[in-house]
Design goal:
about 270 residues, N-terminal domain of MutM-like DNA repair proteins, Helicase, Ruva Protein, domain 3, 2 domains, five-stranded mixed β-sheet, four-stranded antiparallel β-sheet, about 25% strand, DNA-binding
DNA sequence: CGGACAACCTGGCGGC
DNA sequence: TGCCGCCAGGTTGTCC
C-alpha cells in the first residue's frame, strides 16, 4: 500500500525512535523476508551497529548504519515500527522480522502478505541504483521530466508506475496526479501536449505533497500495531471513487483496468481524445 | 521498447 | 454461517 507519502510518513515517525540506538539482535520467522544477504550474514553484520540516520529513497526506508545500509521495502502490506520488547507479540500476528535495540525496544517489521523485504548492503546503489529521480526533490525539474519522456511511447499511467521513470508513485497517486492534470490514464505519453506535460509535472508533486501533508493514506504504520489512521484517503479525487460524483464536475467516476491495475478517472474531466 | 501475465502471499469482502 | 471467487496501495522476470 505504501507509496511515497506513506513511506515518508513512516520514516518521519520512526526516525526519532531509532537514531543513535544500537542493534543488538535479529530475529525472523520467515527468512524469505530477508532479501540480501543470507540470514546468517545479515545477522552477523547488523548486530552491534549504531543507527546514524533514517531516510527514504523512493519507497525504500533507508536505515543508515555505521557500516552499511539497512533497507526495508513495505510492498503491499508491510508495517515498520518501534515498540518496547514487552509489547505483546500476539497483538500483531504478522511480525516476521525483529531487530532488538540497546534500549530494550524492538524495531518490528510486520507484513501479512509477506511481499515486503529487508536488505543489508554497504552499496546503496546495488539496491536503489536503477530508480528514477525523486519527484519532490529540487533537481526533478520540468525539463528533467520532459527529457525522460523523450523517445518514450507508453500508456501514461504505466509510465507513472514505472519506478525507473520517476520513483515513488504508486497506483493511488498515479490516479490522483492524472485526475488533477485532466489527463486520461490511457493516453500515450508521446501524445501529451506541452501544457499537459507541464500540468502533469505539477500535479505529480502536488498529489504527493498533499499525501504527505495528510500523513499518508489509511494508516500511520509507524504507530505501533494498532495504528492510527492517516486521512489522506479522505482527500482523494479519483482513487476508490468509482460510481461517485466527480468532485469537480459531478459526473460519475469510472473504473477501468490499466497496466493490470485498477484505475479511477472522470470520463468528463479526463477525456480520451 | 512496450504490453501482457505469472509469481510472490494472505486477508477481507461481496455474493450466494 | 460457510464457502468461493475476486480484489488489493508493489516489483520482478519472462515471453511475444
Amino acid at each position: 500500500m505504501p507509496e511515497l507519502p506513506e513511506v515518508e510518513t513512516v520514516v518521519r515517525g520512526i526516525r526519532p525512535d531509532l537514531v543513535g540506538k544500537t542493534i543488538t539482535s535479529m530475529w525472523t520467522d520467515w527468512p524469505n523476508s530477508i532479501s540480501t544477504p543470507t540470514l546468517e550474514a545479515f545477522e552477523a553484520q547488523v548486530v552491534g551497529q549504531q543507527i546514524q540516520a533514517v531516510w527514504r529513497r523512493a519507497k525504500y526506508i533507508v536505515i543508515e548504519l555505521a557500516d552499511a545500509y539497512l533497507l526495508v521495502h513495505l510492498k503491499m502490506t508491510g508495517r515498520l515500527y518501534v515498540t518496547p520488547v514487552t509489547t505483546q507479540h500476539d497483538a500483531d500476528r504478522w511480525v516476521h522480522v525483529k531487530f532488538g535495540l540497546d534500549t530494550g525496544e524492538e524495531l518490528r517489521f510486520s507484513d501479512s502478505r509477506k511481499f515486503g523485504r529487508v536488505y543489508l548492503t554497504p552499496d546503496l546503489d546495488a539496491i536503489t541504483g536503477s530508480l528514477g529521480p525523486e519527484p519532490l526533490e529540487d533537481d526533478f525539474t520540468l525539463d528533467v521530466m520532459k527529457a525522460r519522456l523523450a523517445g518514450r511511447s507508453k500508456v501514461i499511467k504505466a509510465l507513472l508506475l514505472d519506478q525507473t521513470f520517476v520513483a515513488g508513485i504508486g497506483n493511488i497517486y498515479a490516479d490522483e496526479a492524472l485526475f488533477r492534470a485532466k489527463i486520461h490514464p490511457l493516453r500515450k505519453s508521446d501524445s501529451l501536449r506541452d501544457e499537459e506535460i507541464s500540468r502533469l509535472y505539477e500535479t505529480i508533486r502536488a498529489a504527493l505533497s498533499d499525501g504527505i501533508e495528510h500523513e499518508g493514506a489509511s494508516i500511520n504504520w509507524y504507530r505501533k500495531a494498532d495504528g492510527n489512521k492517516g486521512n489522506s484517503q479522505d482527500h482523494f479525487y479519483a482513487y476508490g471513487r468509482e460510481g461517485q460524483p466527480c468532485k469537480v464536475c459531478g459526473t460519475a467516476m469510472s473504473k477501468i483496468r490499466v497496466a493490470q491495475r485498477g484505475t479511477h478517472y472522470c470520463p468528463t474531466c479526463q477525456p480520451r481524445e
